[in-house]
Amino acid sequence: MQIFERHYFIYCINLIHKCIDILDSIDYYWADTNPKPCHQPIIDKLSIMNAELKKVSNNKFPQFDKWSMPIIDVPKQAGPSDCMFFLWKYMEFWDGEHLNIDINPGMIYRVELMHFLVFHPLNQADLPDELDVYRLGGRKIDWSGSQ
Q1: How far is Cα 120 from Cα 49, in angstroms, rounded to an integer?
Q2: What DSSP state is assigned to residue 146?
Q3: 53-62, 89-98, 135-144: range with lowest mean pLDDT
Q4: What is d(CA 41, CA 85) in angstroms, rounded to the nearest whole number?
Q5: Mean pLDDT value across residues 53-67
Q6: Residue 72 and residue 85: Cα distance in Å, rounded?
């Protein structure tokens, strides 16, 4: 299976620096691969994306399809299926110049995912009162209708 078959990454149209920041969690150096086969299909479609953005903005969106496209040095995934967790953090903390967080691949996103699953409103498991105090807003849905 190709490493890029189900891999996701971010192209940030950086209007301040007039470049397209590529935030990609694959460590191409470690995997002994080249990022070009993964990114070329997107790069080939940038002119179409640019034309559509110009169209919907009444020509107010800048011509970005020829801008430089640096691959930003960001924390890399360790597991083969972790890219979505990294993208989540890249989108949350990328400010156009650097990440405003130290992403620890072994901890942060796993803790947040665990919290999301345990305290999701659709989780009908009874939680001990000691644990339920860590719920961050929202409430459990009562499916019995006896609210």
Answers
A1: 36
A2: -
A3: 135-144
A4: 23
A5: 95
A6: 17
Type of residue found at 124? Q
Stated pTM of the model: 0.67
What's the rounded Cα separation, in Å, for the pair 64 and 71? 16
> Residue 20's beta-bridge partner residues?
13
**Structure tokens, 12:** 């940030």
CA distance 86 to 88: 5
Q: What is the pLDDT of residue 143?
A: 59
CA gap 130, 126 in Å, rounded: 12
Residues facing 11 on adjacent strands: 22
Q: Cα separation of 86 and 75, whole Å?
A: 8
The two tokens of residue 1 are: 């299976």
Residue 95 clears pLDDT 90, i.e. is over it: yes
For residue 123, give both structure tokens. Answer: 């989780």
Instruction: Using the structure block, give the residue that is written with the tokens 């040095």.
Output: 73
Show the DSSP H helices in 1-121 as ranges: 36-43, 46-56, 83-93, 108-119
CA dist., res. 130 & res. 111, Å (int): 18
Q: Out of 9-13, 33-37, 142-146, which region has the weakest mean confidence (pLDDT)? A: 142-146
Could you tell me if 91 and 10 are in contact, meaning their C-beta atoms sit under 8 angstroms apart? yes
